[in-house]
Amino acid sequence: MSAPSAPRTVPPPGTPLPSATTTAPRPAVDWRIRFVALSLIWGFSFLLIKVGTDGYAPFQVTFGRLLFGTAVLAVAMAVRRERLPRSGRTWGHLFVAAFFLNALPFSLFAYAELTIPSTLAGICNATSPLWGMALSLVALSEDRPTRRRVAGLGLGFIGVLTVLGAWQGFSGLDLSGTAMALLASLSYPIGWIYLRRTLAGTGSSALAMTGSQLFLGTLQLAVVTPLFTSFPDRVPLLPTLSVIALGALGTGLALLIQYGLVTEVGPTTAQMVTYFIPVIATAAGVALLDERLSWNTPVGALIVLVGAALTQSRARGGPVPTPVESPGATKPPGSPEDRTTEARSHAAQP
To answer: For the chain, which has fewer Cβ within 10 Å, the N-terminal or C-terminal residue?
Structure first.
C-alpha cells in the first residue's frame, strides 16, 4: 500500500468548509492512539466471537453484536443530531448492504468459529482485499489491473494455501468452517462494490448511513434468529459480556473510531488497520485461548498480508485502487463525497 500524502481533515458532505481564519478542533486523543485502539478492538473481535459461541448460538451472537452496535451509533447520532436518510431508494440499497456487510459475514464468522480457531478466522478475514481485487476486475470496468496488483493477488492466494497447509491435503482442517470464514471475507467486497455502484454521493453523512445500515442488519437478524434458534435457558456471564463487548466496542465504538480516522488522516492510512487485525487475532487466540499455532499459519498470514498490500498499491501518479468513487463520476478521488463513501464501505470490517 502506498504511503498517503500529508493528512488532511475532510468534512462530511453538506458540512460548510471552514473559513481561512478558522481551524478545525483538535481531537482530544491523537489519531495514532486511536489507530492502535482500533487495531486492538478489531483484532480481539475474533476472540470475543469464539467466547460468545460458547454460550449462545451463532445467530444469537450476531444479533447481540448488531443490537449493541446499533445502540452505540444511535446514541452518537442523537448527540450529533444526525438525520436519517429520507429516500426509500436509499433505505432499499442500505438493506442489501446490511446483508452483505453485516448480517451475512458476522453470522458466517460466528458459525465458522464453532469448528475453527479464532486465529484462523482472523487470518481468513485478511483475505478480503484479495477478493475485492478479483471482484473489481470483473464488476468495475474503470478499475484496471496492474502487474503489481495481479502479482499481489496471486501471492495472496499462495499465502492462503500456505495457511491451510495445502501440501498436506488440508489434513486436520475443518473445511466447512474454513469455507464459511473465507465466504465471510468475500461478502465484504461484494457489499463494498454494491455501495459504490448505488450509494456514492448520496449527501448523507457516513455516520447516518452506517447507523441506518446496522439498524437494518439488526432487523434482519431479529427475523432470522427466532426461526433457527431457541431462546437460551440461561444467561452465562462470560459469553454475555463477550457479546456485549463485541457489539458495543467491536462494532459500535470501532465504527466511530474508524469514521474519525478516515476524516482526519484519510482512508489510505485508516485502512492500514486491516493489516494489524490478523496479527492481534492470532496473538490473542494463542495467549488467551491456548489455540495451537503451526509454522505455516504465521508464514502464510504474512504472505497474505504482503499480497493484500500489493493489491491496494498504485503506480506513482496512478489512481488509488479502492472502492471510493461512483462509476463514471466526474469528482476527483479524495473529494469529500468519495472519502465518506469509502468510510461507509470499509467500516464494516471485520
So the answer is: N
Query: Can you read off the three cell numbers belonging to residue 72?
Result: 452505540
CA–CA dist 99, 187 (Å, integer): 9
CA 204/CA 181 separation, integer angstroms? 32
Do you know the residue count of the chain?
Answer: 350
Cell numbers linked to 249? 466496542
The model's confidence at residue 12, banded by pLDDT at 50, 70 and 90, is very low
Amino acid occupying residue 145: P
**Integer Cα distance of 112 and 61 in angstroms:** 12
Amino acid symbol at 110: A
3-state secondary structure of 28: coil
Largest Cα–Cα separation, the chain: 65
Distance CA 89, CA 96 (A): 11
Its pTM stands at 0.81
pLDDT digits (tens, 9 = 90+) for 145-164: 778 888 888 888 898 888 88
Read off the C-alpha cell for 128: 478480503
Cell digits of residue 20: 481561512
12/198 Cα distance (integer angstroms): 18
Instruction: Report the share of the chain in percent with pLDDT over 90.
Output: 48
Q: Which amino acid is at 108?
A: L
pLDDT value for 141: 57
Backbone angles phi, psi at 339, to 5 degrees: -65, -40
Q: Give the DSSP H/E element, type plus range, for residue 269.
A: helix 267-271
If phi > 0 it is left, if psi is from -120 to 50 it is alpha, else beta; for residue 72 that is: alpha
Q: What is the mean pLDDT of the chain?
A: 81
Q: Which residues in 319-335 are b (16+ Cβ under 10 Å) and which e? A: ebbbbbbbeebeeeebb
C-alpha cell at 204: 448523507
Q: How many CB atoms lie within 10 A of CB 247?
A: 28
Q: Cell numbers for 306, please give them.
A: 504482503
Q: Tell me the C-alpha distance between 320 and 268, whole Å.
A: 9
What is residue 59's predicted lDDT score, i.e. its pLDDT? 98
Q: Which of 208, 222, 324 minimizes the C-alpha distance to 255?
A: 208
